[in-house]
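User: Can you help me understand a structure? I only have the sequence.
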Amino acid sequence: GFEPVYGARPVKRAVTQLLETPIARAILAEEFVPEDTIEVDLDESAPQGGRLLLRKGPKAATASVDFAMARG
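Assistant: Let's start by predicting it. Here is the structure, written out as tokens:
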């Protein structure tokens, strides 16, 4: 989250590490091509709290983000 001393930098670092880099690598490996929609899901059964899954999604005219995680 937000740290008063660091601002949103930890969040940006996490987004880069967990989303941007894996997506960029998949694009470079030609797993995704222009016009693909990339779906991101969380596999919670994986060790250490889960891992992100990237897969081609249905073609979409608009982008949407639905992110809700309840941890307790």
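Now, to help you interpret it: The two ends are 16 Å apart (CA to CA). The chain has one helix and two strands. Let me know which part you'd like to focus on.
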